[in-house]
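Supplementary Methods, section 5.1.

A reviewer requested that the exact input to the structure prediction be made available. We therefore reproduce it here, unchanged from the version used in the analyses.
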Amino acid sequence: MKIDIWSDVICPFCYIGKRKLEAALEQTGIQAEIEWHSFELSPDSPRYHGVSLPETMSQMYGISRERALAILKHEEQEASRMGLDFQWEIAKPGNTFDVHRLIHLAKFYELGDKAKERFLKAYFTEGQDIGDQQVLRALALEIGLPADKIDDVLENNLFADEVRFDEWDARNRGIRGVPYFIINDSATVSGAREVNEFINVLRDQVALLASQAETGICNGGFCEIKK
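The structure derived from this sequence is encoded token-by-token as follows.
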């Protein structure tokens, strides 16, 4: 089973949704190939806003600090339900373009999921500055990526086209928010739904694949009845 996921590393529900999907896969025993796709929630942001997350949210979305705090506390509770430690008080929001480029590098080495998890934890739990290239370099080394390849990405424009393609693809598919899951290029899940909702979609897709295997093979623009 193939699962494509659009998300950003500064999106709390992307981290929560990742955990819920993982829980659903574990409970069903379904094996899935997961591919992460880039989506920048704030592509025009500076590397680091220089202010707290509540203040950043107030500036970006035009909401009061009290409203921002209420949202963050709700997200903290939702994260805790899934065993995540959302330390929003020390979070350093900033531009994620370089993070996405490094995740594409990691995908080349089949370390995409490991990279995604590490960058999410660095931002949400550890308060690391994911806009700082030296921080990103250290995290990428920790993931197991080659130092020379990391430097090639950070010092040049490598994987920029891949990030932009993911974002173009998202727009083309009508994706306006994240997390967004596409399962077997068929079923979609928008947002960090409950675990049982993921389970239902996953099982439906397993049944669909089994049905297709029994009734025929579709390829090259036509479907052939199974003999």
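The longest helix spans residues 195-215. These observations are discussed further in the main text.
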